[in-house]
Structure prediction request, 577 residues.
Amino acid sequence: MNTFEYTPENEIKFQEYVSRYPKIDSCMLPALWLVQEQIGWVSPEAMIYVAQKLGKTPIQVYEVATFYTMFNLKPIGKYHIELCKTASCMLCGSRELKKHIKETIGIEAGQTSDDGLFTLTEVECLGACGGAPMFALNGEYHEKLTKEKVDEIIKECRNDN
Amino acid sequence: MITKIVSKNFDIPNSHKLEVALANGRYSSIDKLFSMTPDEVTQEVVKSGLRGKGGGGAACGPKWELMPPVDERPRYLIVNGDESEPGTFKDRQIFQYDPHLLIEGIICTCYALSAHHAYIYIRGEYKFFIDRVNAAIKEAYEAGIIGDKIMNKYDFKLDITVHRGGGAYICGEKSALIESLEGKRGHPRLKPHGKECEWFFDNPATVNNVETIASVPNIVENGAQGYTKYGTEKSPGTMLFAISGPVNNPGVYEMAYGNKMIDFLNILGGGMIEGKKLKAIIPGGSSCPILTASEVEKAVLDYESMWDIGSTLGTGGMIVIDEDTSMVDVAKNIIEFYHHESCGQCTPCREGTGWIDKILKKILSGDASNEDLKTILDVCNTMNGKTICVFAPAVKDIISSIIKKFPDEFKTYLKN
Prediction:
C-alpha cells in the first residue's frame, strides 16, 4: 500500500517543475526534494510514489536517491547539524569542534540524540572555506564557528523545545 | 591589487535586488547586445580570450562555436553552479551579491547561442543561494526582463530555471551534470573523439561556469579590448581568487591574472595567522598539485605560469597550510574527500581512492613500511588516464605531489 502523497501545495509545485523541462525525467531531483521537504526524509513509500509520478520503476528512483548524499534515507532529528570536515575546515579546527559537539549533545557523527532533537553528520566541503570552521543547521550556514558560538546555537535549539 | 569587473557591485547594500542592480549598471549591455548578431557576440568573446573559470581554464568562445547550426531542435545553455571543489567558494558570491549579473550574462550567452532556455544547476547545499537566485529570476520575469521578450522590447524568448543538485561533487563535471539534469545518477559520460558540444536529451547544449557567464556582459558592453587590457596575454581578464585556511583575511578577491601568489597571500589574504610560517599551498581547489613554500614564492597566478611550475590554477581557490600541520594528515583528509565523492563508475577510481585511504590510515597508525608508500604511488599510476573523467587523474596529481614534495614527513611514520 502506498502511504505517501504530496500535499496539494507540493502537487502544484511538482506540476510547475514538470512544465520547466523538455522531459519529465528531469523532475527526479525536484520530486525527491519535495518529498524531503514534506516529511524530512525519503521513505521507500515515497520512492514508489515518485516512480509512479515520473513513469519510472521504483529501482530507478532508488538508485538516484541513494547516489546523492543529501537525501536522508531514514528519519533524522529535528535539527540536522552537518559539520564540514574537509581541508580548510580541518586546518581551522573542525576536529576540535566535532569533539565539542559530541560532548555537548552526546552523540557520535551519524547518530541522532535519544530525544530526537539532533542529528550530527560529518560532511565533505560545503563551499564555505572562507568561513571555516562551519556547519549547516537544517541547511542554514553558520560560519567562523567557535565553541562559544556552537554552545549558543545548541542552547537556542533546546530553548525552542 | 584588486580589479573589479564581476565583483563591482558586491559591496553595494542590497545589490541583489533588481532596483539596486538596475541603478548600478546591470542590464546595460543588453541594448548593445541586440545591435549585434549572435555570431558577432560569439566572435567578440573569442577575441576577448575569456577562459572558463570552473577549473579547466578552456577558452570560452571556441566552446560556443561548437554548437551546430540552428535547426529545429531546441538549444540550451546550462550554467554550472555545482561549486564543490574544496577551497572554492566564489560562485556563491555572485549568487548572493549580484544574481542579476548572472541573469544578464545568461541573456547575452543565450542570444549568442540561439538558446531559449537556460538551466542553472546549483549544488543542493546552497539552499540560501538558490533562494536568492530564484528571487532574482522572479523579479526579472515580473519586470519583463526575461520571458517572452528581453527587456520588454527585444523579440527573443528566454526562460531560466534553477535546478537544485543533491550533494554530489562529481556533478560539477559537465557531462555528469547533464546526466543529473536528466534525472539520473551523476555518472560522467564517455567523451567523443572529436570536439563537439554537449547534449541535453540529444539536443545541443553548452555548459559554462557561473563566473564565466558573469564575465560576459562586460565583454559585450566594452568589447574584447575592454577585457584584454587586464591580465596577461594568454590569460586575459580577471578572476575571483579565493584564499582559506590559517590566514588573517580569508575570502574572495577579484584580481587580474598575473599577480604573484605570495603577494595575494600577504596583502589580500592578510598573511598567516599568529605569525605562523607557511608550509604549502594547494593552489586552485584540492585537485591541483601542491606547492611548497619556496614554490609559492615563485608562483604567478595565471594558467600558463602555473603549468610552468608543474601545477594548475584550477578554480583559483587556494588552501593555505601552516608549519604545524602534518602533510600526512592533509593527504588523508583529502583522500577521504575523494573516496567519498568517487561516483563509482570506473574501477581504478572507485577502488583506488579506497586503497589510498586505507594505506594512509595504516601509515598514520605507524604500522606501514616503505613498501606501502610505494603502493600508493603505484595505485596513483593505475588511476591516471585510465578512467572516463579526470577525477582519478586529479587524485593522482594531489596525492603523489604531496608524497613527492614532503617525503620526510611520511618517513617519520614508517617502520624501518
The domain at 238-322 of chain B is CATH 3.10.20.600 (Ubiquitin-like (UB roll)). Residues 210-228 of chain B form the longest helix (19 residues). Chain B has three domains: 18-228, 238-322, 327-411. The two ends of chain B are 49 Å apart (CA to CA).
